[in-house]
Amino acid sequence: MSSVSTLLEDRGAAFAGYSFAFLDDMAKREIRRAILKGVAIPGHQVPFGSREMPIARGWGTGGLQLTLALVGGSDVIKVIDQGDDASVNAVNLRRLIAKTTGATETLDTAAATLIQTRHRIPEEVMREGQVLILQVPIPEPLRLVERSVAAARSMHAEMDYSRMWLALYEDIVRRGEVSAGAGYPVMVNGRFVMAPSPIPRWDIPKLDNARCLFLFGAGREKRIYVVPPFTKVEPLEFDDYPFDTEHFDGKECALSGATNAYLVESPTEDGGSRWTASDTNYADKVLAGQEVDTQWKR
Questions:
Q1: Which residue segments constitute the domains of the chain, with CATH numbers given?
Q2: Of 109, 171, 238, 277, whose CB neighbour count within 10 A is largest?
Q3: What is the pTM for the complete model shown?
């Protein structure tokens, strides 16, 4: 234990006495094996023994365990919550990771090696070698059409997604369109229907043939799944009702003037509202006049 304490103190950590990156070595090995299996079978949900963490379940324990199992002292860590670097959740998770590993913190998407996120994919294109870790509340995409866990597993094994397609069809009949918003179901590598975390539809196209590695962790549900680089990811859609993202025609970020970004509406003091870019780092770069590559699809 003294050697561990010395290592943490040398890294300027406040949690001397804890294992490096908080988790014990056996937990890290199990999570890494699950990740490797997920890489081999894209979109398949791999069970793992989710540990108790110093945060409440539902606040990103799955994503945090993935991050702590992979991070090293030389990594550069970025944590975002709905695209925001400065939210309470993002700041505290980033501090926990940095204090137990000595990893460098950053707000810059391009500089990060590991990015943990809650419900957003950065606007800036991620490069090869970067890892995006998404926190997932409900990993089972069939939960809305099949409550039985055993039955849902059988449906995945048999590639029987007829009830999912029926649910989309009924949505069109009732509302005139597929109204599914955050967490729109996708087909991974032509084999598994996957829940892409509650990311907005705006982010769904970024999953297809991306250069980075996507990891999905559900701590409460004890599931890990993966979308490796250059993997085909397609939203479920009908020929006559194609998938479409959110539109922000005529709107721009009130802070940076950015238009090619996912915008969120917030109230103003005069009783009105304004639109701002969800990705705060992207908005800061645009405001500073930097060129930012947002063309995920090549």
A1: 2-140+186-235 (3.40.50.11310), 247-291 (no CATH)
A2: 277
A3: 0.92
